[in-house]
Design brief:
This is Protein-methionine-sulfoxide reductase catalytic subunit MsrP. Keywords: Metal-binding, Molybdenum, Oxidoreductase, Signal. This protein has 337 residues and is an alpha+beta fold. Helices cover 18% and strands 19% of the residues. The chain binds ligand MTE.
């Protein structure tokens, strides 16, 4: 297991963990640190190190998930600064337009989504294309926990403990050809279980599509998540497989993925197709470039209410500049929003 050294931009483990647990974990890990690789990633806890989430409803994880998550323990979170968002908020304040446009619609409607069996197609500019049952697709990957900020373009944010694996590990596995310059993701299209896809009023030309430049996808922060809060993903959060790119606005983090394609041209993404003057391909979190209809300088950290709005300043690249700013050297971020 890699031990990562935190940077100033990190969501510190001590900020989201009871101190006693934090200290005891540090002393156990401390002895092992010297001989292990050190990288510039934010701090994360390993999957068997999960002991913190007070209000989590247990899920019905498939056996392959349980096998990759050997010893999950549960406990309370005592937070100082950046709290992990309560499970209830993370699972009942969602954007998943396939299930409706209100924040509560995904939790209310996504129960109808059948996530088992699930298959993922890998195609395009790859040496090893294929259609995989999810349990086979997952075989090569070790699961990790990553505690990331999630900043929506609508100016609300959360802190979520994801469980997943780096997109770079998938790329290594499928062997992109020299023509591959971008990675394109596609969500399930199933109007029977997805009422938003049946609606005559939907602006979206289904399926929902997202994409990254290949070097962005290779960045160690980009992960494919299969779980959160120590359990598998709830349907409303994008079960059984979603993208998480924490330095970008949340709409890049596409849910319920069924197709991953390596392509030579920049893919046409969903929100860009709907309103390219409001939502760009890059969608990097940037407090200095406002959305045409609202400021991006600040955000509401959930839980947030009328009497306690919990507003804070938005950070460049959502606080992950040290890890990702070099991807954009020489790029005009005002034009490439
Ligand atoms: N993926 C699909 N397929 N459909 C969607 O409507 N919404 C996006 C993103 N992924 C969306 C999606 C938006 S706008 C955000 S902010 C995040 O999911 C929200 O993720 P969460 O509901 O897990 O917080």
């Amino acid at each position: 297991m890699l031990i990562k050294v935190p940077k100033a931009s990190d969501c510190h483990e001590s900020d989201v963990t009871p101190e006693s647990l934090y200290l005891s974990r540090r002393s156990v890990l401390g002895a092992a640190v010297a001989g292990l690789a050190v990288s510039s990633l934010p701090r994360w806890a390993s999957a068997d190190d999960v002991a913190r989430y007070a209000d989590v409803e247990p899920g019905k994880a498939p056996s392959w998930f349980a096998e990759k998550l050997p010893s999950t323990k549960w406990g309370a979170v005592n937070v100082k600064d950046e709290a992990i968002t309560p499970f209830k908020d993370a699972t009942h304040y969602n954007n998943f337009y396939e299930f409706g446009t209100d924040k509560g619609d995904p939790a209310a409607n996504a129960g109808a989504l059948k996530t088992e069996p699930w298959s993922v197609v890998v195609d395009g500019e790859v040496g090893k294309p294929g259609r995989y049952a999810l349990e086979d697709f997952m075989k090569p990957y070790q699961l990790e926990e990553r505690i990331y900020r999630l900043r929506c373009v609508e100016a609300w944010s959360m802190v979520i403990p994801w469980i997943g694996f780096p997109v770079s590990a998938l790329l290594k596995e499928v062997e992109p050809t020299s023509k591959a310059k971008f990675i394109r993701f596609e969500t399930l299209q199933d109007p029977k279980s997805m009422p938003g896809q049946r609606s005559g009023f939907a602006l979206i030309d289904w399926p929902y599509v997202e994409g990254l430049r290949l070097d962005e996808a290779m960045n160690p922060l980009a992960i494919l998540a299969v779980g959160m809060y120590g359990r598998e993903l709830p349907n409303q959060n994008g079960a059984p497989l979603r993208l998480v790119v924490p330095w970008k606005y949340g709409f890049k983090s596409i849910k319920s993925i069924v197709r991953i394609s390596l392509v030579s041209e920049q893919p046409k993404t969903t929100w860009q197709s709907i309103a390219s003057d409001e939502y760009g391909f890059y969608a990097n979190v940037n407090p200095t470039v406002d959305h045409p209809r609202w400021t991006q300088a600040r955000e509401r950290r959930l839980p947030s209410g009328l009497f306690k709005p919990n507003v804070r300043d938005t950070q460049m690249f959502n606080g992950y500049s040290d890890e990702v700013a070099s991807l954009y050297t020489g790029l005009d971020l005002r034009k490439n929003y």
